[in-house]
Specification:
It contains 4 helices and 6 strands. The protein is α+β, with helices and mostly antiparallel strands and about 140 residues long. The strands form 2 sheets. Strands 1-2-6-5 form a 4-stranded mixed β-sheet, with helices on both faces. Strands 3-4 form a two-stranded antiparallel ribbon.
Length: about 140
């Protein structure tokens, strides 16, 4: 199970990561990643986007490791509630292996696509590939 300090819970954190982070997609998942120390970036329109550090972003509330946080988005397009929860549990289990790779204050959102409900072992391979691509893009940023 994913530790409590590593779970993303606030909708603001999800929104910030998806809108201002890097993205890497595969057939079954899309991985969005954002590092808070580089969150002040230029938006598509050319204006600078400032991301304020909130109470939840401070080291004292992110947990003892100051590591990153992971969130999951599984929409109704994936299937019934049973299928969505099954996909979310599988993704949480698979993402646990990637937790040590996250740097301090790195936020990752894993979004499941409709193909994730019937993916089988491809889900793990897609998550691995998308995760690696997203973090490498984030490192170049």
């Amino acid at each position: 199970m994913l530790p409590g300090h590593a779970r993303m819970r606030r909708s603001e954190d999800f929104r910030r990561t998806v809108r201002h982070g890097v993205r890497a997609g595969r057939r079954t998942v899309v991985v969005h990643a954002l590092r808070l120390d580089v969150a002040a970036s230029t938006a598509a329109g050319g204006e600078e986007v400032r991301v304020e550090q909130t109470r939840a972003d401070t080291p004292s509330t992110t947990g003892p490791t100051d590591g990153g946080q992971i969130g999951f988005v599984v929409s109704k397009a994936v299937g019934s509630a049973v299928r969505r929860n099954r996909v979310r549990r599988r993704l949480r289990h698979l993402a646990l292996a990637h937790l040590p790779e996250l740097g301090d204050h790195t936020m990752v959102v894993v979004r499941a696509l409709p193909a994730a409900s019937t993916a089988g072992p491809d889900l793990g391979a897609d998550l691995d590939a998308a995760w690696s691509a997203a973090l490498s893009r984030l490192a170049r940023r």
